[in-house]
Design brief:
Layout: E1 6-11, H1 16-20, H2 22-30, E2 34-39, H3 58-76, E3 80-83, E4 96-97, E5 103-104, H4 119-133, E6 137-140, H5 150-166, E7 183-188, H6 191-203, H7 214-218, E8 229-232, H8 237-245, H9 256-266, E9 271-279
Parallel strand pairs: 1-2, 1-6, 2-3, 6-7
Antiparallel strand pairs: 4-5, 7-9, 8-9
Length: 299
Amino acid sequence: MTDTKRLLIVHAHPDDESSQSAGTMARYVDEGAQVTLVTCTLGEMGEILVPEWQNFSPSELGQHRIGELEQAMTVLGVTDHVWLGGAGAYHDSGMTRDEQGNVVPEQERPEGAFWDADLLEAANHLVEVIRDRRPHVVSTYDPNGNYGHPDHIQAHRVTMYAVALAGAPAHRPDLGDPWQVPRVLWSTNNAKLWEQAYYVARDRGLNVFGDLSEEDVKRLGPQDVTIAAVVPYGENLSKATQALLSYRSQVSEDADFWQFFQIMRELEGSGEAYLYVAGIPFPPSDAPADDLFAGLDLG
């Protein structure tokens, strides 16, 4: 293998990559890295914001979102995209909320829902991709799927299982030569920026999260000490914005949350944050690394 940086990112639905990893992917594409995006479902159960598309069935929405994802990938320059198990192999599970407002799985789920997938089967699809692409860095959600969506949680489980299996020589040699991923990360909220953006948005009359106490605002994401790396948006902010706007079915520029999200992305020092999970640690530093590959041997 060459010394080209190789990054593999796993997301649950189309648009997740553009809301959480767009700046990262655009940066490393620009640097000539091999960037692979794996998407686990077609996002068939997503909320439809465009009135004339309200009559889309889940199947029709899923097919539509394929085109939206392709448009976003063009914006970001990503050419290596994989549907886990093939397009439509796993169905968007949907989500609901309990009496406390927590995100939980629907009681009645679509046939083939990702939440109900056989973990080993799904992981083996990803094992094959990992062994073929041999990424230096793999990133996915934290164990709670960042905010509790069942498909995000399942993507976390599948990814972590696949990373372990991919490095085991005794496991499914028919799926390729074993590959031990050098570094595993979880994407996360950049707590400091969410806190700053909350107050800026409030001053502009945007009531995105309601009136929160100072302590609640600080809990919008992990504290800075836990964040291992932040990839700055920098000159890729415009690409990240345009990639997310590719999802007209899901994203409205007029929505309060969209405006909050843009405020956060435009703050000084804004970037996509990651937690270190396994493999080779980042070099010691008083500040988060600004390169996901810092300290890695790229051979």
